[in-house]
């Protein structure tokens, strides 16, 4: 594509949509999304997103781990991205998570 007066060809660029994780709301979170500790270590995947329906409040997520399905409270969720969930938990704290709700 050439623009008048510029005298040079300009090629359009296409930005990659997957270059950086995109923050999302809990309502867009999908089962199978990896879940990480605060230092980025993956400890499971999302099984279900839990909502307190009467008041429409995010309650947390059930996570499939090597030790079974565990519940991560909404207060323990740092950020949610299209590619993963970042928790505020350390690796040691993941061992203390209670069973799924």
UniProtKB/TrEMBL annotation:
Protein name as catalogued: PRC-barrel domain containing protein
Q: Which InterPro entries match?
A: PRC_barrel-like_sf
